């Protein structure tokens, strides 16, 4: 199984788009509005996996809170990514973990409270 994308439903796409595009450096590969009340943006990093951000203006009328989504991002040099996140003022929610004979990882949260894990295997 090859995971293609993660979907995050949002109340407002503005902060998340800035976070994933400008802070993390992902590229927008598609940006469209299928209806008057919805905007969908696909972002992609170096691999083939994508993040799909969906802003649904109708959802703003009563839905609040965390959408129970987490995202794992595989990186080649976790130390440089860790430093980049610190330089950009991103809060590290779980500091660097070095598993014995295994991966290194750390965690942040995006503007919606969604956990993002960076991992180097």
List keywords for this structure.
single chain; 121 residues; alpha/beta; four-stranded mixed β-sheet; 2 helices; 8 strands; 44% strand
Report on the structure:
The protein has 121 residues and is an alpha/beta fold. It has helices at residues 13-23, 78-87; strands at 5-10, 27-35, 38-44, 50-56, 70-74, 92-98, 104-109, 115-120. The strands form 2 sheets. A 4-stranded mixed beta sheet has the order 1-4-3-2, covered by helices on one side. The chain has a 4-stranded mixed beta sheet with strand order 5-8-7-6, covered by helices on one side. The longest helix has 11 residues, at 13-23. The radius of gyration is 15 Å and the shape is elongated. The two termini are 19 Å apart. The mean pLDDT is 87.
What is the topology?
Blueprint: E1 5-10, H1 13-23, E2 27-35, E3 38-44, E4 50-56, E5 70-74, H2 78-87, E6 92-98, E7 104-109, E8 115-120
Q: How many helical elements?
A: 2
Rg over CA atoms: 15 Å
Question: For this entry, what is the oligomeric state of its chains?
Answer: single chain
Helix fraction, binned, reads 10-25%
Q: Could you say which overall geometry the principal axes of the C-alpha atoms support?
A: elongated
Unreliable stretches, pLDDT < 50, 5 or more residues? none
By DSSP, the count of extended strands is: 8
SS-based class: alpha/beta
Task: Please indicate the percent range of residues in DSSP E strands (runs of 2 or more).
Answer: 35-45%
Spatial order of strands in the largest sheet: 1-4-3-2
Sheet with the most strands? 4 strands, mixed
- Helix and strand element order: EHEEEEHEEE
> Mean of the pLDDT scores?
87
- How far do the termini sit from each other? 19 Å
